[in-house]
Transposase (Sorangium cellulosum), 83 residues
Amino acid sequence: MPKRTRRHHSSEKAALLKRHHLEKVPVSDLCDEQKFLPSLFYTWQRQLFEHAAAAFERPKASPSAYRSPARGGRGSRGGSSSR
């Protein structure tokens, strides 16, 4: 009978990586608990560090944030005033 491949949810991967890096749980212990190979853990770790810079990037503003003041976008004061 073929072996089923288990799919791990992203939150589960993050929790396991966090346990290793913050709680100092050895990779071998995590792998024994969850029944997966260390190579899978190290693949997740590589993916985490390859995409880590994205966590520190500023979100791009949506085009609606730059609408003209007449339409109620950024810069609108919500009323008419003469200066």
Remarks:
- The chain has three helices and no strands.
- The radius of gyration is 24 Å.
- The helical segments are 10-23, 27-34, 38-50.
